[in-house]
């Protein structure tokens, strides 16, 4: 897994992250979603490594990265806090400006990084997401029924108790679909109470402080300064729930293109070659 990549533990001002680094060329930071770790990129990163220096961290709260202290507003798990980690990580690796792609919950951190630090993000790719504020503003009975976990995870204590009672049944997954080493890494994460709490805290931040940050940007008329590429899974429910995905992103990004891919939600595991080709073409331009 990740042949030719190094595996490092990097101490940053606010967090300590487990990070894979490999390849050569322009820097490209890849952010995983829930409930995955950086290992979700193991089929994509080596392909991108032919053109890019690829950096794949476990986000704070996830995998084997450090877990933030709990606060009433969940600010330690906010996408703004994780964006500061992204900036600090890439600066420590010697990159003042970089390409950035995020999937699922990692897409929210990627979006916040580009919004808060436009001087650092050259191009942005969002995979399977619309902004948190838009998702919540558009929430109806269909969304609540399909994405009920957003609201369950927002509750205190009960989500962790439910997940940890049987993590394998809760999350599913298989070595055949994910790859043996990636699956083992995933299992270690979902069986760790501190990691489960950290992942759930990401959702608690999403319902509160993250939404506030998005709404403040919207009110101020702030938009992305860099080109945006949006990709989403045709066999997941993002388009079914929200309709024209690019129309939603055009309100946030003057330069946006995108399309759906013929896969289910975990595109990096299901369609690695096509995803790598899409990202390579976008970030090479």
From TrEMBL:
Q: Does the keyword Transmembrane apply?
A: no
- What InterPro entries does the record tag this protein with? AB_hydrolase_1 (IPR000073), AB_hydrolase_fold (IPR029058), AB_hydrolase_sf (IPR050266), Epox_hydrolase-like (IPR000639)
One Pfam family assigned to this protein is: Abhydrolase_1
One GO term in the molecular function aspect is: hydrolase activity
Q: Give the keywords, sorted.
A: Hydrolase
GO-annotated cellular components? membrane
Q: What is the protein's given name?
A: Alpha/beta hydrolase
Originating organism? Rhizobium loti (Mesorhizobium loti)
């Amino acid at each position: 897994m990740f042949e030719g990549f190094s595996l490092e533990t990097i101490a940053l001002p606010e967090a300590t992250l487990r990070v894979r680094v490999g390849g050569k060329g322009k820097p490209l930071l890849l952010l995983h979603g829930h409930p995955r770790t950086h290992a979700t990129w193991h089929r994509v990163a080596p392909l991108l490594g032919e053109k890019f220096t690829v950096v794949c961290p476990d986000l704070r709260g996830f995998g084997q990265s450090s877990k933030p202290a709990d606060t009433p507003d969940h600010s330690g798990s906010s996408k703004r806090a994780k964006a500061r980690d992204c900036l600090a990580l890439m600066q420590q690796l010697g990159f003042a400006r970089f390409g950035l792609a995020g999937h699922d919950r990692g897409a929210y951190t990627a979006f916040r990084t580009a919004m808060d630090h436009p001087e650092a993000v050259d191009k942005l790719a969002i995979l399977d997401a619309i902004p948190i504020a838009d998702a919540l503003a558009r929430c109806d009975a269909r969304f609540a029924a399909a994405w009920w976990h957003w609201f369950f995870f927002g509750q205190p204590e009960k989500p962790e108790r439910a997940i940890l009672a049987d993590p394998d049944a809760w999350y599913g997954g298989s070595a055949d679909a994910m790859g043996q080493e990636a699956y083992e890494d995933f299992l270690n994460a979902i069986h760790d109470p501190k990691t489960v709490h950290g992942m759930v805290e990401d959702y608690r931040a999403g319902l509160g402080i993250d939404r506030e940050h998005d709404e403040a940007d919207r009110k101020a008329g702030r938009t992305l300064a860099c080109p945006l590429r949006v990709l989403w899974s045709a066999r997941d429910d993002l388009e079914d729930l929200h309709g024209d995905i690019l129309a939603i992103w055009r309100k946030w990004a003057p330069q946006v293109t995108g399309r759906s891919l013929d896969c289910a939600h975990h595109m990096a595991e299901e369609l690695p070659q096509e995803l790598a080709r899409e990202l390579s073409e976008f970030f090479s331009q």
